[in-house]
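S.,

As promised, the 2-deoxy-2-amino glucitol-6-phosphate run. Input:
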Amino acid sequence: MCGIVGAIAERNISNVLLEGLKRLEYRGYDSAGLTVIRDGQLHRERQVGKVQALVDAVNNDAENFKGNIGIAHTRWATHGEPAQHNAHPHVSGKVAVVHNGIVENYKPLKDELIKKGYTFTSQTDTEVVAHLIAEAYKDTKDLLKAVELIVPRLHGAFALGVVHVDNPDELITVRLGSPLVIGVGIGENFIASDQLALLPVTNRFMYLEEGDIAMVKRDSIEVFADGQPVERAITELDAKHHNADKGEFKHYMLKEIYEQPDAVARTLAMGIDATDLKADFLASHEAELAKVKHIQVLACGTSYHAGMVAKYWFESLTKLPCSVEVASEFRYRNPVVVDDTLVVCLSQSGETADTLSALRETQRRAKSGEIKGMTTLSICNVATSSLVRETEIFIPTLAGVEVGVASTKAFTTQLAALMLLVLKVGKVQHRIDSDVLSSIVTDMHQLKGYLDRSLALDQSIANLSQMFEAKKSTLFLGRGMQFPIALEGALKLKEISYIHAEGYAAGELKHGPLALVDKDMPIVVLAPRDSMLDKLKANMQEVHARHGELFVFASENSELESDERMHVIHVPEVCEYLAPIVYSIPIQFLSYHVAVMRGTDVDQPRNLAKSVTVE
Ligand code: AGP
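Predicted complex:
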């Protein structure tokens, strides 16, 4: 989604802004722009397409873009097509604004401004904000006051960066529902939608709260909430966990697939010792976990699939009921949430608007007394995110920064963290047999080895992927805990290769999708040796009989071998509960290699964003 970068310094800041935008490219965008104040004027450049086009344009006019204060933006179109006139920054007289999020009531505000004589050059909601600030500034002659006056008039969720030609030592920023962080330098300060944008210039960050308005100067930062000055802590980040370099890999996605054995092991190590859970794992939350009677998982996309796996784990290992729902549906359907529910929110970014608003809806209902005894927990890859700050319990996924839009290591580490949670709840409530717990923990210690061996499948899956290159559609089948992995395989393939794909519980095949099966339809099957394997083999026969071509990821001991219309790739055999983590790797490789072959933009697929900060 849209990305904001801003800087105020003694040095020329245009390269800081451009580098910041490059580091935000992963969020997804369709145009980019920047403005700096130089010699009492706003110098602005905007380009449709990649940030590199903006870099080239700025470099062609480098002298004019030398400035000490500026704001920059990558835009993901919501109001108005991707076009230069819709790209940010938007300008009204001496005011320039960059904006992330949506101003829902922009239409009546626009009508009001037109009546006052303002002309609009874009279809965006953002231009309204620029004109409103310019109008308010006429009276206040004070940029901070002008911003404070107009913010209550804007409905929606957004973050802003604002500069004014007559105030070249002030950068104003607002956080109200969309992420915004202040980077704290020495004699220079910065703003951005994501700290990642600012890592080349600082590792000290101030995280704004919702509703905060900040006046950022070269050597000071003042934050205001409801017009009153407030203190916000500065956090120092350990840069080694924020390395966003591709290294020798061709794509971030490939690098992130390869990082999984370590990332999963690191995440599991938070909670386990030799044969048991660590005594201190979630120790301070045992009272809340002991009273949980129901688990409600809320998430979107890939994170939702991780939640679906957890449902199988919770119900079979602890016998506690677990519901899983996509956050965007849960939020608006007035769902029943029983007392003593543990609300588990899963998110890589922790800024997903749908997940946040579903969480807030449960909190609103708990506050009104409608739900009693509710506890909220997040499993998230960004410890400083809104989701983490707004939930009572937090389990980090120690995946490190994930840049590829297609989530890989964040997914498998979510699964690792979820299994730790299942075991913890089971143990605290005496719902899990200690031998079962200890056997799963023992298997967890071997998981890194299994994942390392799965990485060795890279080349054979690359060879297989040639057979998908020209296909129009693909089915992914799994049963039990592999059903969510089939859904995830289909999501991955469509997301980055743009081939239509569907995931199905294999037992559903004969209830509809079998009609699609013919010799041109590739069918990917996840077939670990587990309690469902015989049933799954019968489903595969149904495909075989209709001349469908099967691509089977199967355990070494599954007794499945390749034949004329069945390509079998053997995956290391692992206990049934941990198999979803191991089988994630082949489906990631498959989508990756098919996408590379089709020449798509693997790390930044069209129309998608890494951090989906609008509903
Ligand atoms: C994953 O490959 C997708 N890009 C997408 O489905 C993602 O998982 C979803 O948007 C949720 O994001 P989150 O985990 O950051 O909340």
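The first strand starts at residue 3 and ends at 8. Residues 300-303, 347-349, 352, 355, 405-407, 495, 612 surround 2-deoxy-2-amino glucitol-6-phosphate (CB under 6 Å).

- D.
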